[in-house]
């Protein structure tokens, strides 16, 4: 693998909690950072690719901890607008579409989501893939890893699934159901085929039953047993409005239900958690259970703004996620840093704890996300860690008056444009508006063609004002 040297960087943010380094270089080789400091050209091996980073801010690659890639095929559909229906009506409209997805749909939607993530500085992505229509076959996770390899994304696959029939209270069509045995067997196959626990691993797998309201208790119990046996992470949706249902069915709210099963601990993280009480958040902190906060869906589907200050005060591990297009029509984790911060400012006067400083939101999107995924080799820029980073050329009018504080920039100001460079595992995967060696136009055409096999390329004028 070619060594790469970024020289004369305007600023290097090694982490959200470390001093910013000014006018220094960063050298990577064989997927890892080998040195950060001034005048590293003398240390660079022969054949090093040298890139002048004058005027550029360098950041650790962002870590996306919750997404549903397959939902990229239902973005910006007026007929599926949340605001027009009750939740149940909306689910009844959207799940039949999900149940029609083909294997090719899952591949191309993964390419679409990962490409957008990479353009905006994300270098590691966790996808919670819980949609497995029977006609789509058994290779959906395989195709996602294929898409990740094409783009150079560091990919964690959350092998999800649903086992509770709609007739017993779930929201899932029968076409998307699996038995617990089928689900556990599929998880085990994915782990054995793809999970790599080695440092700088590009492929990992988590056991991720969709959510307690859509699965039998035994599904969660066997998920815990399998994950602990295989040494992989556990994940699910928890605390997004389902606790009253869980309490009605099982006699306790979701956090207590999960703790009783063993679906809690330092190898577990939940998505959302916006409905949890302070006492429940304290239980998460005590067990080491983490939370993937997805700020943008709060605008559409959250009954309240997630209490991130309380999580911070109590010591809950927090990462950031985009979530899927059913509740966020983009795959831009950079934007989530800004919107996450602004949401907390919006409700600050009503909260017991103050708004976390802007740099905390960069932390959530980097080291916080790495912690949720059980990684110590990503999320910061230090020798020996993965060469995952992005660069922004700040010599633009957009950044006048902001360059004194690179750490707060992403949260307070926000960065709307794609990065100027994204590097993953020491390989430049996005540079100057292009994916090196990849024809984005061809990928676009193939994805659009596949999309139109399940959804027409038309809009119903009655759905617009």
From TrEMBL:
Ranges for domain Amidohydrolase-related: 57-429
Transmembrane spans: none
Domain of life: Bacteria
UniProt xrefs under InterPro entries: Amidohydro-rel, Metal-dep_hydrolase_composite, Metal_Hydrolase, MTA/SAH_deaminase
Keywords: Hydrolase
Keyword Hydrolase among record annotations: yes
UniProt-recorded Gene Ontology molecular function terms: hydrolase activity, acting on carbon-nitrogen (but not peptide) bonds
Family: Belongs to the metallo-dependent hydrolases superfamily. ATZ/TRZ family.
Protein name: Amidohydrolase
Organism of derivation: Marivita cryptomonadis
């Amino acid at each position: 693998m070619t060594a790469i040297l970024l020289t004369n960087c305007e600023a290097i943010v090694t982490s959200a909690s470390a001093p910013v380094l000014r006018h220094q270089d960063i050298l990577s080789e064989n997927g890892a950072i080998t040195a950060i400091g001034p005048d590293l050209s003398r240390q660079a091996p022969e054949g090093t690719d040298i890139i002048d980073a004058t005027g550029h801010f360098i950041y650790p690659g962002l870590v996306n901890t919750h997404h549903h890639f397959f939902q990229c095929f239902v973005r910006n559909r007026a007929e599926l607008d949340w605001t027009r229906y009750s939740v149940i009506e909306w689910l009844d409209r959207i799940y039949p579409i999900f149940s029609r997805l083909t294997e090719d749909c899952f591949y191309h939607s993964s390419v679409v989501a990962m490409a957008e993530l990479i353009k905006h500085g994300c270098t590691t992505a966790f996808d919670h893939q819980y949609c497995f229509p029977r006609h789509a076959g058994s290779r959906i996770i395989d195709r996602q890893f294929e898409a990740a390899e094409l783009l150079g994304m560091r990919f964690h696959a959350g092998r999800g699934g649903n086992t509770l029939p709609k007739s017993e209270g779930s929201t899932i069509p029968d076409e998307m159901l699996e038995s617990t045995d089928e689900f556990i067997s599929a998880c085990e196959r994915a782990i054995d085929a793809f999970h790599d626990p080695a440092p700088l691993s590009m492929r990992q797998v988590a056991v991720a039953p969709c959510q307690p309201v859509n699965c039998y208790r035994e599904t969660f119990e066997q998920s815990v047993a399998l994950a602990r046996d295989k040494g992989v992470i556990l994940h699910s949706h928890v605390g997004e409005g389902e606790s009253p249902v869980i309490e009605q069915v099982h006699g306790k709210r979701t956090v207590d239900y999960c703790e009783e099963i063993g679906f809690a601990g330092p190898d577990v993280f939940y998505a959302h958690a916006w409905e949890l009480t302070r006492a429940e958040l304290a239980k998460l902190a005590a067990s080491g259970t983490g939370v993937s906060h997805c700020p943008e869906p709060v605008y559409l589907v959250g009954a309240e703004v997630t209490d991130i200050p309380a999580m911070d005060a109590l010591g809950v591990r927090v990462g950031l996620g985009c979530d899927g297009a059913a509740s966020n029509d983009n795959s831009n984790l950079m934007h989530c840093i800004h919107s996450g911060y602004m949401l907390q400012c919006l409700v600050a006067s009503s909260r017991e704890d103050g708004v976390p400083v802007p740099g905390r939101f960069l932390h959530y999107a980097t080291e916080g996300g790495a912690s949720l995924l059980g990684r110590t080799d990503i999320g910061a820029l230090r020798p020996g860690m993965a060469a995952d980073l992005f660069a922004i050329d700040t010599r633009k009018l957009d950044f006048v008056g902001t360059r004194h504080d690179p750490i707060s920039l992403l949260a307070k100001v926000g960065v709307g444009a794609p990065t100027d460079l994204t590097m993953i595992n020491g390989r430049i995967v996005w540079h100057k508006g292009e994916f090196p060696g990849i024809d984005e136009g061809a990928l676009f055409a193939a994805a659009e063609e596949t999309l139109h096999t399940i959804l027409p390329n038309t809009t119903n004028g009655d759905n617009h004002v």
